[in-house]
Amino acid sequence: MRATLLKDTIKSLFPIQRTICIEGAPGGGKTTIVHEVAKELDVPCIERHMPTMLVEDFGILFPDGDGGLKYKLPDWFPVKGKAPERGILLFDDRNQANGDLQKVLANICQARNLHGVSMPDGWQVVSTGNRQSDRAGANRVLSHLRNRETVYELETHLDDFTSWAIDNDVKPEIISFIRFRPNLLHDSDPQRDQNPTPRSWVEGVSDVLGTVPPEAEYESFKGAVGEGAAAEFVGFLRIFRKLPNPDAILLNPTAGDVPSDPATLYALSGAIAQRATDGNFERVCTYAERMPPEFSVLTISQAARRNPDLANTQAFTKWSIAHQDVLF
Questions:
Q1: pLDDT tens readout for residues 21-62
Q2: Is 312 left (phi over 0), alpha (psi -120 to 50) or beta?
Q3: Is the pLDDT of residue 294 over 80?
Q4: Backbone phi, then psi, for 126, in 5-degree steps?
Q5: pTM for this model (two decimals)
Q6: In Å, what is the CA distance from 142 to each residue of 31, 120, 248, 292?
Q7: Which of 170, 201, 312, 326 is deepest in the core (most CB within 10 A)?
Q8: Going from the N-terminus, what domains does the chain have, and what CATH number goes with each?
């Protein structure tokens, strides 16, 4: 399931507190999606990392003062009457947890309490995990836990990543390259030490780009996304950095050369889209009109995604009418 549909699905299930699990290859954004859903619902999200937990982290027996024992609950557990009425309780990487921890989780999912102490009625339990086929240390999930939840498999999708990347200030070089080489967005192979994933492109490449010395870029990228993807990206960077000056193009959009090489067009589309403003958008559209149709659409759509107000301009209306055969 695509990320956009998955987010909508989680939000639709939240009012009935249906327990769900999101599974998929490492680095696809499973945990991020849950936190974004909580933010959009304006509810708290309590996250616990299952592989680093002990059964004792769910409560320890203490003398009750009357000769008996009672559980002292962890402070993170949302207790009914004390915690907010609505929220999400997220158990991350639960497939890497051992059987004893899975049994505790199964009870929380079904009974909606921990050692007899209930959580508020408006809390939803969500888990994330890798599949055993991903060879990420995932264990077999107990059948009775499986039977108490709905499992969704996250599918990485180019358009979803592009939209998310623009909204979260991922560098345009990354977005343009992934549009050019979409197969490298999420190419997870357990046999390789490093793999290109949405997470590694953002945290290991975008966040590093412009921080490390230029002579260390390849080694830095290789250590995040692997040798092959890093080599291709460094080659793309050379093209990106030798582009015609986008600012000069926008000063005279009717005269600037339009490249014919696809890699250069992807790079230039991203660079121009990043510079689009209310003041120069008419010139952006003028130059985009001279580009091949697919790159014209790419340029304008990315610009409008970065700045939604551009979609209300006369220039956008004129451009969209001219390209309605591609848009609709």
A1: 999 988 899 999 999 999 999 999 999 999 999 999 998 888
A2: alpha
A3: yes
A4: -130, 140
A5: 0.83
A6: 21, 26, 61, 53
A7: 201
A8: 3-153 (3.40.50.300), 158-327 (no CATH)
